[in-house]
């Protein structure tokens, strides 16, 4: 096939995920001829698996402070121009039932399929075409835009949008393709690592905690001056639950994590008071008031706290209080991209326009969604970034 016989589109978007589909509908409604291509056999696979199958599609309290980036101001403009309320209006227009599970966190009442179907319907109404099972093998620049070599023949376009996501969950189609394209066009890609991911433990602690698998308790987890007060879950492999997932995005190999197991209590004052008023109380009994019983007794056993409080000296009580309020662990690592919800790092946003998501010296090449160095906290923020960055590019591409 010759160059002239390649199918031509105004906009080609690589990646039929959250950001790509949102961008496609937005550009399509502007009258642009849009094609979305994806190598997967289905669009939006991560949308379907998100939020335990019910997609935590936005967070009403989302602010730029909920995002990590080497260039923290970059996300502000797009997030301001397309807000959680804007996405909620779209969801409501499609009559999708939703509920607020935790403050600000909106989930589908029935299924994440509702969000994917909504995006596909929007793409259809906007006239955007979606081509699946299509691998892109090469991208080159032309006088009028870009030329793509794909498994189903050559394509050309005026504007090219890269929406290929991050590296997490390779079995769902994640690839490093977006980073390769960025490097090909001279962009810097910041080091990537798994985020919102469970921790693995050193063998000794893993064995000690193994009997507690399945137990969850509210904690305050702290690492590198960030802390999250949310539930922690003990698993067969290590520690998970919202508190651990959130703090994992701030953790680097070798770092300690400090866990306050009783964040609502003044532990030392409580124990001193109990020793005076109810001297026969044990630490295990105190713990059982605030922690799941099985967790309380196993944690107590782990530290060998026996006997009534009347036998504890001030220094002993101080030590118990420190251990409970500042239980310090050094994870062996994380479960990595295999189970991570997101990829931290990625395309350095200093080379992109915060208004359009286009490369600064290459206005027809755009990067949106998770492939760029903007990563949200747990709780619907990552989808909000996908929607907002998709709309920002779709409005101009
Ligand atoms: P996304 O990964 O959605 O899409 C990228 C697309 O590009 C995929 O369809 C992929 O097949 C395609 N692609 C990749 N390489 C390609 C190539 N070489 N050629 C062609 N196509 C290619 N967030 C949130 O806010 N609320 C939530 O409830 C959850 N829950 C959740 C659960 C789980 C298990 C995971 C793994 C993640 C979440 N997330 C989440 C995060 C959220 O899913 C994620 O941030 C967005 O899907 C990112 O959207 P993107 O469109 O950037 O990438």
Q: Any idea what the shape is?
A: elongated
CATH architecture of the largest domain, by name, is 3-Layer(bba) Sandwich
Helix amount: 25-40%
Query: Proportion of β residues?
Result: 25-35%
Could you give the count of β-strands?
A: 22
Which residues sit in consecutive blocks of at least 5 with pLDDT less than 50? Answer: none
Major beta-sheet overview: 8 strands, mixed
Bound molecules: dihydroflavine-adenine dinucleotide
Domain tally: 2
CATH homologous group name of the largest domain: FAD/NAD(P)-binding domain
Task: Enter the CATH topology name of the largest domain.
Answer: FAD/NAD(P)-binding domain
Arithmetic mean pLDDT: 96
| Structural class estimated from helices and strands | alpha+beta
Rg from alpha-carbon coordinates: 25 Å
Broad CATH class of the largest domain: Alpha Beta
User: How large is the count of helical segments?
Assistant: 13
Termini, distance in Å?
27 Å
Description:
With 397 residues, the chain is an alpha+beta fold. It is 31% helix and 27% strand. The protein is built from 13 helices and 22 strands. The strands form 5 sheets. Strands 1, 2, 7, 8, 9, 10, 20 and 21 form an 8-stranded mixed sheet that branches. The two termini are 27 Å apart. The relative contact order is 0.19. Bound molecules: dihydroflavine-adenine dinucleotide. The site of dihydroflavine-adenine dinucleotide (FDA) has 36 residues, from α1, α2 and α13. Keywords: FAD, Flavoprotein. InterPro entries: BaiN-like, BaiN-like_dom_sf, FAD/NAD-bd_sf, RsdA/BaiN/AoA(So)-like_dom, RsdA/BaiN/AoA(So)_Rossmann. Residues 193-342 form the RsdA/BaiN/AoA(So)-like insert domain.
């Amino acid at each position: 096939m010759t160059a002239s016989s390649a199918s031509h589109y105004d906009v080609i978007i690589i990646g039929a995920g959250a950001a790509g589909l949102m961008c496609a509908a937005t550009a399509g409604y502007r009258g642009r001829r849009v094609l979305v291509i994806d190598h997967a056999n289905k669009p939006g696979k991560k949308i379907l698996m998100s939020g335990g199958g019910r997609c935590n599609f936005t967070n009403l309290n989302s602010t730029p402070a909920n995002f990590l980036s080497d260039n923290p101001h970059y996300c502000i403009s797009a997030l301001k121009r397309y807000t959680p309320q804007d996405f909620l209006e779209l969801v409501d227009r499609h009559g999708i039932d939703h509920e607020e599970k935790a403050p600000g966190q909106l989930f589908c009442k029935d299924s994440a399929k509702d969000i994917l179907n909504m995006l596909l319907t929007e793409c259809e109404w906007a006239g955007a075409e979606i081509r699946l099972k299509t691998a892109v093998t090469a991208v080159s620049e032309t006088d009028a835009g870009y030329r793509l070599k794909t498994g189903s023949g050559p394509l050309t376009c005026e504007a090219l949008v890269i929406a290929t996501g991050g590296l997490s969950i390779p079995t769902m189609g994640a690839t490093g393709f977006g980073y390769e394209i960025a490097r090909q066009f001279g962009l810097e890609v910041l080091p990537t690592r798994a985020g919102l991911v469970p921790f693995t433990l050193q063998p000794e602690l893993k064995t000690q905690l193994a009997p507690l698998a399945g137990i969850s308790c509210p904690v305050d987890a702290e690492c590198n001056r960030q802390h999250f007060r949310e539930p922690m879950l003990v698993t067969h492999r290590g520690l998970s639950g919202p508190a651990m997932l959130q703090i994992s995005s701030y953790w680097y190999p070798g770092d300690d994590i400090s866990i306050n197991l009783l964040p609502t209590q003044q532990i030392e004052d409580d124990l001193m008071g109990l020793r005076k008023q109810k001297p026969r109380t044990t630490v295990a009994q105190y713990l059982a008031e605030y922690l799941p019983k099985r967790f309380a007794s196993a944690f107590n056993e782990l530290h060998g706290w026996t006997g009534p409080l009347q036998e504890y000296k001030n220094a002993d009580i101080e030590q118990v209080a420190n251990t409970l309020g500042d239980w310090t662990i050094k994870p062996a690592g994380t479960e990595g991209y295999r189970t991570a919800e997101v990829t931290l790092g990625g395309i350095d946003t200093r080379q992109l326009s915060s208004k359009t998501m286009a490369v600064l010296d290459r206005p027809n090449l755009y990067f949106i969604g998770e492939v760029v160095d903007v990563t949200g906290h747990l709780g619907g923020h990552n989808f909000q970034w996908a929607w907002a960055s998709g709309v920002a590019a779709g409005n101009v591409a």
